Amino acid sequence: MTTTVRTENYSRTLTLVHIGMFSALMMIGANITSFLVVGGVPITLQTFFAILAGLLLGSRVGALAMAVYAFIGLAGLRVFAQFSGGLDTLISPTFGFILSFILLAYAVGKIAERFPSRKGFIAAALVGLVINYGFGTNWMYAAYKLWFAAPEAFSYKMAWTWMAAPLPKDLLLTVMAGIFGYRLKPIVQKYK
C-alpha cells in the first residue's frame, strides 16, 4: 500500500516537473531569437520545443505543458515571442501559433504513441509542423483581414509567403526533433 502511494506521488511529481520544464523551454525558445522578425512573424524555437513535448511527454501531458505556457503568457508574464504577454495577445496576428502548440503537441503525441518507431516520430513531428503552419498562418491572415491593421496589399498568398522564410529552419528542426524525440523517449520512459 505504502509503495503504491509513494509510486503514484512520484509519478505525479515527475509529471508536474515535465510540464514545468517544457513550459520553461517554450519561454526560452520564444525569446532566444525573437528579435529576428520576417513579415509579421518572429523567428523562434517554439515549434521545436512544442513538438518535443508531444514526442517525449505524450499527447495529454505534452498538450498540458503547452497550455500552461499559454496561460502563463495570457496571465501577463512576458513569455511569448518578443517578450510579449497579457490578454491583448489574444487578438495579435501570431496568437494562432500559440494555440497551435497545444494542438500540435497533442497530435504529435498521439501519432508517436501509435507509431513508436523513428519514422513514426519523424512523421509525427512533420504533422505537428503542418498543424503549426496551417493553424497559425490562417489565424494570422484572419487577424490582419478582420481586426488588425493589415499591411498594404495584404493577401492570403502574402501570409503564406511570409512563412517561407522560417520554413527551412523549421523543417530542419522538426526532423531533428523527431530524431531527438525517438532517441530520448526511452530515457524519459525509464523515469515515469
TrEMBL record:
Topology in membrane: Multi-pass membrane protein
Listed GO CC annotations: plasma membrane
Compartments (UniProt record): Cell membrane
Keywords: Cell membrane, Membrane, Transmembrane, Transmembrane helix, Transport
One MF term in the entry's GO annotations: biotin transmembrane transporter activity
InterPro entries to which the protein is assigned, alphabetical: BioY (IPR003784)
A Pfam family the protein falls into: BioY
Transmembrane segments: 12-30, 36-57, 64-84, 90-109, 121-142, 162-182
Keyword Lipid biosynthesis: no
Annotated family: Belongs to the BioY family.
Protein name per its UniProtKB record: Biotin transporter
Organismal lineage: Bacteria, Bacillati, Bacillota, Bacilli, Bacillales
